[in-house]
Amino acid sequence: MSQPKVAIVLGSDSDYPVIRDMLQRLDDFKIEHEVTISSAHRSPGRTREYAEGLESRGVEVVIACAGAAAHLAGVIAAHTILPVIGVPIDSSPLNGLDALLSTSMMPAGVPVATMAIGKAGAGNAAVLAAQILARSDPVLAERLHDYKKKLAAGVEEKDRKLRKERNA
Ligand code: RP5
């Protein structure tokens, strides 16, 4: 297996079902990736060690997914110079609003590119990671152009179906 370019970190195994689209999209873009569970609160030492080792292993983008008072993305960003994409997971009684704020509202100097809450954000994280990697990978850039074309074609197809239904 070749070296992962994208490292996905989950705060808990309970976050895994939310990232299905992300994994599918990374597979579709043919981007090597790895998934690890590590918690900013429950396993802070492991999280720090993992973040510090990413760059030297050739990883280029990190996607950190966590719910509740989610510090995972920020803590990883504190320990690496790699771009960190944060996905707030809707796993708490506040439905992810807590995670959205704690992931996005980073103090000056340590950015986290924060996605939407939940499944849509998880899928978008894969697309953003692909867009970052595509700056130095023309083949991947071509796959992204195709992806955009498919998105547009999907909307046209929905429009056609709706018009047909309404005229039936
Ligand atoms: C966060 O707390 C995790 O990212 C998860 O979204 C949430 C709940 O974790 P579990 O109690 O299910 O392990 O750290």
Round the mean pLDDT to the nearest integer and report it. 97
Question: What is the fold-level CATH name, i.e. the topology of the largest domain?
Answer: Rossmann fold
Which segments are poorly predicted (pLDDT under 50) over 5 or more consecutive residues? none
Number of helices: 6
User: Looking at the structure, what is the overall shape?
Assistant: globular
Rg is: 17 Å
Strand content: 5-15%
Please give the number of β-strands. Answer: 5
Number of domains: 2
The string of secondary-structure elements, in order, is EHEHEHEHEHH
What ligands can be seen in this structure? 5-O-phosphono-beta-D-ribofuranose
Distance between the termini: 52 Å
Major sheet characteristics: 5 strands, parallel
Q: Specify the structural class.
A: alpha/beta
The appropriate CATH architecture of the largest domain is 3-Layer(aba) Sandwich
CATH class of the largest domain: Alpha Beta
Q: What topology, given as strand order, has the largest sheet?
A: 2-1-3-4-5
Helix % is: 40-55%
Protein architecture, described:
This protein is α/β, with parallel strands linked by helices and 168 residues long. It has two domains: 6-136, 3-Layer(aba) Sandwich (Rossmann fold), CATH 3.40.50; 138-168. It contains six helices and five strands; from the N terminus they run E-H-E-H-E-H-E-H-E-H-H. The chain has helices spanning 20-28, 44-53, 72-78, 97-104, 119-134, 138-167, and strands at residues 6-10, 33-37, 61-67, 84-89, 113-114. Strands 2-1-3-4-5 form a five-stranded parallel β-sheet, with helices on both faces. Helix 4 (97-104) links the parallel strand 4 and strand 5 (113-114). The longest helix has 30 residues, at 138-167. It is globular, with a radius of gyration of 17 Å. The termini are far apart. The structure holds 5-O-phosphono-beta-D-ribofuranose (RP5). 5-O-phosphono-beta-D-ribofuranose (RP5) is lined by residues 11-12, 14-15, 39, 66-68, 89, 91. Residues 11-12, 14-15, 39, 66-68, 89, 91 line the site of 5-O-phosphono-beta-D-ribofuranose (RP5).
